[in-house]
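This follows on from our talk about sequence and fold. Go ahead and set the record down below:
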Amino acid sequence: MTKLNSNIIHGSFLYLILFLPIAYVLGNLAINITIFLIDIYFLVNLAIIKKYDFRSKILKLSLIIGALLIAHSLILNIEYTHKAIFYLRFLVFPFALSYVIEKNYLKLNLLKHFYIIFILLFSIDLFLQFKTGQNILGFDLKTINGYPNHEISSDELKNFRVSSRVSGLMGDELGAGAVLLVFGLISILFLNNLQSKKEIIFTICSFLIILFFIFITGDRSPVIIFICFIIFLNFFIHQIRKYFFHFIIILGILIYLIFSFSPVTKYRYIDNPIELTNNKEKLFSKNKLKNILTTDWGKHYLVSLQMIKDKPLFGHGIKSSRSKCKNFIKYLDEKYRLRACSTHPHNILLEILVDTGVVGLFILLFLVFKYFQIVYTKDKNKLFGTSNKMIFLLLLAFILPIKPSGSIFSTWYGSLPWLIAGFAITRNKLEV
């Protein structure tokens, strides 16, 4: 194969990386096809060149973990063994993604600019739906506090006791906040090493804009992740630390303005959570905590703890909440049983412990630590910059188990941490 043909093939697969944010708007099928093609391209090239770089040991570790996951499912939950097999695509994906990007090193600005344009258009469409009730394609705000519009009484509308979920181009899929969080921040952070004051100020202003649009989606978990990410930046990125106080002040003003001009948004983030946990109680009172446990999330957590106690070391197998949760409802008090079971525990930590136990948790934490080593401690040739470190901090904020979350073993939500990891280990410059 000539060098020209090789460059054309490498370049064609860069367009799959460009397509990724669109794939997350289209849904699981588009995501799976895109990731599968990128993985196959990487593995075929790996078989041809028969060598990889300093990341090869961690790739081998990832494949070993994938094999253990398959064996684990065969033993404990054979019904979902196919899920474990297909999970290999995510374990390979970070290396495949970084490989494709690095093979197109001279076109990286195209990638960055495309993501920025996508986020800009996506955000405009979200704002249009937020203000008018319909997006550019005519999609309505169909979900209000979990119920269709026609089930909301006029009194509730009058008192703003409803909360919108703005999804824009995603229609019924309520994941716009996560798309903005991941692809918005990657478009800002990728190749951004904060080398000048102008670059730092631009980055902080971009953070505020992205956070504004995440706020109006009504997606609370991405907001929590974003705030954790900013806190991590303050501790670990000295260029941001100087402006942290200013950022907090401007952020406070921004949130105040959003809540002042949009009572529905205020209800979603402030009033509704308070009502769910009884606003008459103090924040950390015993009764307040009991009220949290009576919410759907609290019930999911309680039944998950029962499952963990039953098999703490190795768990019940992939997707076991879906198939085995009903067997553990009987251990809960009567008031916690209704809607206690779901397709997953809605918390990353609990899901890993339920499905793979303490052993599985430690193995995954070890893998995250190896990613940390790539970016922070084994960079003798200065191949990774501040941008890699910031994206890795985004990964840590994303997997931090302090908020409700999607399933780590699903396609849509479960692929996002691996995508972030791929950008984190993509080299800023190539070895000479």
Summary: The CA atoms of residues 74 and 81 lie 6 Å apart. Residues 146-152, 156-161 have pLDDT under 50 and may be disordered. The chain has one domain: 3-287+340-424.
